[in-house]
Specification:
Layout (H helix, E strand, L loop, with lengths): L1 E4 L5 H11 L10 H16 L9 E7 L6 E8 L10 E11 L4 E11 L6 E8 L8 H15 L7 E6 L10 H9 L5 H9 L4 H6 L5 E2 L5 H6 L8 H10 L2 E6 L6 E6 L4 H5 L1 E8 L9 E5 L7 E4 L2 E4 L2 E4 L1 H6 L6 E7 L17 E2 L4
Parallel strand pairs: 6-7, 11-15
Antiparallel strand pairs: 1-2, 2-3, 3-6, 4-5, 4-9, 5-8, 7-10, 7-17, 9-10, 11-16, 12-13, 12-16, 14-15
Length: 360
C-alpha cells in the first residue's frame, strides 16, 4: 500500500468512490466534471510554493502496489470558509433569571455561526469495502498528520474534523427532519447536494442567526445533537486518541459534532520523528509496523511497513521500500510507530464515511 497525491488518471476510480460512498459523503459527489475540477485543484495545490495557507485542497489516494488499484482516499482542506462559508450551530446554555419572581432557568440553544473560518480541515477519508485490511484505515487517517507536520506553513494552527451525524438506513436525519418543518422545506439529500456543490447562500437566507431553543425541537432531534453515526464511532475514537475534542459546534444539517485540536498538539505530529535514510539494505528482522513518508509535495509518498528499522536519527530500509518511496541514501523521511493512539476498535473494518466536508 502506498499513499500518493491524486492524479488525473484517477478520475474513474474517484468517480466509483463517489458512487459507492453514498449521500453522506458530501465532499465527493458523483459528478465527473466536479470531480475532475477537484483533482485539478489538488494537483495545483501540491505544486504551489507557499508561506501561509490559502484555498489549497490536498487529496491523496491509497494505491495497491500489487495491482495499481485505488483503495481509498483521504484529504486536507488547508483553510476552510474562504470561498464558501462554513456554518455550524454552537450548542450552548442560556441562563434566564428573574430576581423579582425568584425564577431561574437554563435553556439549551443552537446558534448559527462561522466559528471555524480559516481552520484546517481533515476530510474525504474513504476506504473501499474490498480493501479493508489491517492498518489501511490508520494509514489513511494518520498520513495527513505527518504531511502537516512536515509542511506546517501550509496549514492553520487549528485542525478540525466534521463527523457524520446520526441518520437512518434510508439516509434520513432526524435532526434535519425537525428543522425543515420550521425553517427550510427541503429534503436532507437536497440540502447536502446543494452545499456539496458549493451553494450555501440558502443557509443564511433560511436558517435564523438568533438562538433556537432545543426544547422546541422533537425528542428525536434533541437526542442526536452532538452524536455521531454508529459507523463513525471508531473514527471518532481514533481522533480523540490523537487529541481532538468536541467544543460544542455541531453540523447545521445532521447535528453531528465537529472536533478540533491544535496542530502542534496532535499526537501523531508530536510523536513522529524526522529521520534520514542513511542506509539502504535489508533489515535484519521485521520491526513494529511504522508509517514512513518522504518529505516531498507533488512527489509525496508514504506507507506502513515492518521492512524498516530505526536507530537514533537513522533508518535502515529495503531497496524495494526505498524505491516505492522515491528515496536515496541520506534522503530525509518522517516516521511514526503505528502502535501509538490505538483505539478500541478498528476503523478499517467498519463502513465508510468517518469524516465529511461539504464544499471546497
Amino acid at each position: 500500500m502506498i499513499i500518493r497525491p491524486i492524479a488525473p488518471k484517477d478520475l474513474d476510480a474517484l468517480f466509483r468512490i463517489a458512487e459507492e460512498s453514498g449521500p453522506g459523503f458530501t465532499s465527493l459527489m458523483p459528478d465527473r466534471d466536479a470531480l475532475a475540477r477537484k483533482i485539478d485543484h489538488s494537483v495545483d495545490s501540491f505544486q504551489r510554493t507557499l508561506s501561509a495557507p490559502g484555498d489549497e485542497y490536498y487529496l491523496f489516494v491509497l494505491e495497491d502496489t500489487a495491482t495499481g488499484a485505488v483503495m481509498g482516499t483521504t484529504g486536507i482542506q488547508a483553510s476552510v470558509g474562504r470561498i464558501h462559508p462554513l456554518y455550524h450551530f454552537r450548542h450552548s446554555t442560556l441562563v434566564q433569571h428573574s430576581r423579582n419572581l425568584g425564577l431561574h432557568r437554563q435553556i439549551d440553544t443552537l446558534t448559527r455561526c462561522q466559528h471555524y473560518t480559516g481552520c484546517t480541515e481533515i476530510c474525504s477519508l474513504y476506504l473501499r469495502p474490498e480493501y479493508r485490511r489491517p492498518l489501511a484505515g490508520k494509514l489513511l487517517s494518520r498520513v495527513r498528520f505527518l504531511f502537516m507536520a512536515m509542511h506546517p506553513e501550509r496549514f492553520s494552527d487549528t485542525v478540525i474534523a466534521e463527523m457524520r451525524g446520526v441518520s437512518d438506513e434510508g439516509g434520513q436525519s432526524p435532526f434535519w427532519n425537525c428543522l425543515k418543518t420550521h425553517f427550510a422545506d427541503l429534503e436532507f439529500a437536497s440540502v447536502t447536494s446543494l452545499v456539496g456543490a458549493g451553494h450555501t447562500e440558502f443557509i443564511e437566507d433560511l436558517i435564523p442567526d438568533h438562538p433556537i431553543y432545543t426544547s422546541m425541537l422533537s425528542a428525536e432531534a434533541r437526542g442526536v445533537v452532538g452524536k455521531v453515526h454508529e459507523q463513525t464511532r471508531p473514527a471518532l475514537a481514533m481522533l480523540e486518541a490523537e487529541g481532538f475534542r468536541f467544543r460544542g459546534l455541531v453540523d447545521v444539517f445532521d447535528g453531528g459534532p465537529t472536533v478540533e485540536c491544535p496542530l502542534a498538539s496532535i499526537r501523531s505530529v508530536r510523536t513522529s520523528r524526522g529521520l534520514r535514510t542513511v542506509a539502504i539494505g535489508q533489515p535484519e528482522a521485521a520491526g513494529t509496523p511504522t508509517l514512513v513518508a518522504n518529505t516531498g509535495l507533488a512527489d509525496f509518498r508514504a506507507t506502513v511497513t515492518s521492512d524498516a528499522t530505526t536507530a537514533g536519527k537513522t533508518v535502515l530500509m529495503s531497496p524495494t521500500l526505498s524505491r516505492q518511496l522515491g528515496l536515496d541514501n541520506g534522503a530525509p523521511v518522517r516516521a511514526l510507530a503505528m502502535g501509538n493512539t490505538r483505539p478500541a476498535t478498528h476503523p478499517e473494518h467498519i463502513a465508510m464515511t468517518p469524516e465529511k466536508h461539504y464544499a471546497h
